Amino acid sequence: MEGWVIEFHLDGRSGVSPYLQLVHQVRHALRLGLLREGDQLPTVKDVVARLAINPNTVLKAYRELEHEGLAAARPGVGTFVTRTLTDASLAAHAPLRRELQRWLARARQAGLDDESIEALFTTTFRTASEEDIA
């Protein structure tokens, strides 16, 4: 999948179906401005070859993105992004990203591995979200 704007990966331990993992990765790339309107998604053939998954899984993900209005298939050409999910405040993300990078560095210096960091973040995020609701 050399040369594609997005390179998919799958996590068999996530509990999330492979097609949804692909959909989530595209949404994530759209939110971060990594994918833009007009960008071509990797071909089904390339995704299948790289991830060793069923072509129907990739097709299902791409159909979901089409249903959401985020992508459109052009027969014989490929699947292309039709809109983004970025907002005007994307520039405001830079300071938050730097702060998060510093936090990650401190977490690693404290001896946390990637799984521990992710667990800490996820737990804290969910707790904060629940507190916002209450």
From TrEMBL:
Keywords: DNA-binding, Transcription, Transcription regulation. The keyword Thylakoid does not apply. It holds the Pfam family GntR. Coiled coil: none annotated. Residues 16-84 form the HTH gntR-type domain. InterPro entries: Tscrpt_reg_HTH_GntR, WH-like_DNA-bd_sf, WH_DNA-bd_sf. SMART domains: HTH_GNTR. This is GntR family transcriptional regulator. It comes from Microbispora corallina. The gene is ytrA.
